[in-house]
Specification:
Structural class: alpha/beta
Strand order of the largest sheet: 1-2-3-4
Shape: globular
Number of strands: 4
Strand content: 25-35%
Number of helices: 4
Largest sheet: 4 strands, mixed
Length: about 100
């Protein structure tokens, strides 16, 4: 699920996996197009597989192409672990807000 959490922020929640990533991606791209959303809040993500990483990379590319420097909220532990495993942690860390 993806909902506008606050002005300039979009929240992604639930399990993000191969079965749900395409639907999440389509919905998020629609919500990002023409919006002033600057951050994707990932605090509600309860589970993820490698498809979630692909989704995040595609959203970052989508934003960059539209001149929107989308930031990611802190990665949940599952996503952070996968990012390290695939060598994407440094790339994603450059787009992440630090944990509070």
């Amino acid at each position: 699920m993806a909902d506008t959490a606050a002005s300039g922020s979009l929240q992604l929640s639930g399990r993000i996996d191969m079965d749900s990533a395409a639907d999440h991606l389509a919905r998020l791209k629609r919500q990002l197009n023409g919006s002033s959303i600057q951050e994707l809040d990932l605090s509600g993500v309860t589970g993820a597989d490698s498809a979630a990483l692909a989704l995040l990379l595609e959203l970052l590319r989508h934003g960059r192409e539209r001149g929107n420097a989308l930031r990611l909220g802190p990665l949940p532990p599952t996503l952070a672990s996968l990012a390290r495993l695939y060598g994407l942690d440094e790339l994603l860390d450059g787009h992440c807000r630090s944990r509070s």
